[in-house]
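### Sample
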Amino acid sequence: MSSMELQQPTATGSNKNGDHESQSQMLNPGHKRGGWFTFFFVSATLTGLMIAGWGWLTNLIVYLIEEFNVKSIDATQISNVVNGSINLIPIIGAVLADSFLGSFHVVSISSLFSLLGIIALTLTATLSHLRPQHCGTGSTLCHAPSKLQLAVLYTGIALASIGLGVVRFTLASLGANQFDSPEDQGVFFNWFFFIFYSACVVSSLGIVYVEDSISWGLGFGVCAAFNFLGLVIFFLGNRFYRHDKPQGSPYTSLARVIVAAIRKRNVLVSSESKYYYHEINDGANKAIAATPKRSFRFLNRAALITEGDISSDGSIAKPWNISSVQQVEDLKTLIRILPLWASTVFLATPIVIQTNMTVLQALAMDRHLGPNFKIPAGSITVVVLISSAIFIALFDRFLYSTWQSLTGRSLTPLQRIGAGHVFNILSMAISALVESKRLNVAHDNHLQDQQGGAAAVVPMLALWLFPQLIVVGMGEAFHFPGNASLYYQEFPVSMKSTATSMISIVIGVAFYVSTAVVDLIRNVTGWLPDDINDGRLDNVYWTFVVLGLLNYGYFLLCAKFYKYQNLEQEAEANTQI
């Protein structure tokens, strides 16, 4: 199925008519679907679901250590696996949304999964026989959780992870589908991420405080309530949404291109349009050339018409022998973007490790703000969320418009991603310096090798961790919306849910890579013992500074040779970086 068959209903009429339709959708939501009116329902749904999801996920390491007697580094590794799964699962939701169910049904089902999982976690926190006995202070004799306790815990985590993982970026795709112009879609993604980060801030401060200071059961119960509220609001907006209509798997079309190209490997490539197959709707896409582009010429053979490929009525006689020009170009687009995607994986990996290690650092630092308030360790990374939310809004309102007025060009997605690389490297360097100071204080006070495996609290304020978290938040304000815009604009029309899920896949792969990296560091060096006061976490951060610089160089090389497939973007992006 050609991706243009999905685009045809919105390809008719002029841009002017499209603008009038967009205005009509805003002013008369009862008569027209889509437009900015739907943003209220999408944003309210996102707020409820993210408050719910982040409420249990942010504090998972602390919950495992304090309530299930898991060792600290092991808890971070479990958290890595959970976070990795959460961020890889969206590709399944994207396939279901693009190919079979549509975004609305996928968001609905995944939200229900999330609700059931959080309810199961609430039970582990409220029913004493579903968790092991607490360890005594300084005790080395801790009871391990039973098989039943682990079964309930992991079932709850699995269901909640599936729900949280699928819903985030499928909801982003549904929201972007309500707009026709790339400008509106870009603004939508900026504010989508702003609301995403803001909701996570509320959850990381409010719900995590309830879990640490009042009770885990109440905290998880509040998460379940927000999840339910978000689901209700989502259903209330159903009559206003512009629903996408999946028409078969676009992935099959991509596979057919590869098979057809291999079968025709001995056929000579032609430069004349008449020898290539164009489906009827291909003509509606002005970005598709009459003949396939010269890049990856081997794949062009898939669109060459040979004897027996086309029936007398013009339909395809052998589906796995021929593809349309558009399908060939769609596959080429994905191939071109893969090197950039890979660089983002190694951009996200240090952030993942930094996030988990910062929680362990906070547990071993003075978290008091005044005599009566103590920052929950699981909430320390909320600084990243606050920083990201603030700078996303500032960049959208001031930086991007100022840049355009000074240069006459919009800041391209690749430029925004490149800026994110720079801030990420800077954050790792700051992390290394702060950890080096923390270790010096720990050594001066002889706080190594404490009994029980847990690190002793160092007389150094956890506020020292804030600068590195603020800087990494600034980087995320650049590269996450930048990646979302890049993938959504460049991916084939029939794969828009897949496009938005690519960011999540990057993060998911990064969590698994970080797990392997931490295991490697633990086995090869002595930098990460259970007592981080006796380790060299600063060396880990310096290692990622060096790797970050190498990855940034690789990204610049990929960006230099990348050509936007969206012609409007390409015209204004001759100097991308």
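Residues 1-31, 282-287, 567-577 have pLDDT under 50 and may be disordered. This sample (Protein NRT1/PTR FAMILY 2.7-like) is used throughout the tutorial notebook.
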